[in-house]
Amino acid sequence: MNVDEIINLCDSQCVIFDTSVIIDYIRILLRKNHERKRNILSRIFNQCSRKAITTLIYEEILAGSDEDVQLQQFLSDFMILPFDIDEAIFASRLEKQIRNKGLKPKGENWRIDLFISAFAYTQRCYILTKDEDFTKMLNCEKLDEVEYYVCRS
Length: 153
Prior knowledge:
The chain is α/β, with parallel strands linked by helices. It has helices at 3-12, 19-30, 35-47, 55-63, 68-75, 85-100, 110-123; strands at residues 15-17, 51-54, 79-81, 126-129, 139-142, 149-152. Helix 6 crosses helix 7.
């Protein structure tokens, strides 16, 4: 998948921007180098009309920053998906599938990724992520121009 395809996808489908992509974008905006990557991410962020985050992603981003007001303003451009019983039920099924396959998620935040995957399934959204753990839970395709994945259930 290429950048134009993800932007076109964003016109017709909800795309959840994972914490890893949002943090990467913010860091790149603050640096002078990585111009190519900054241009690619800026296109995606600015041209994606149906971009979303979950309440869990919202919390993760705010918890990692001292600038809550600026971040909240930045995050207001995203549709915010709340966690409810449908996501909890699907997350429990997905976790059982992962265990039955013998896969071992890594890191302390893998359960958040599990819930984000549940959002993608129940809300019929795609996920744009830098995190390889999603490839264990969803069908993911690498983005050609940058080291991100586009995942769906």
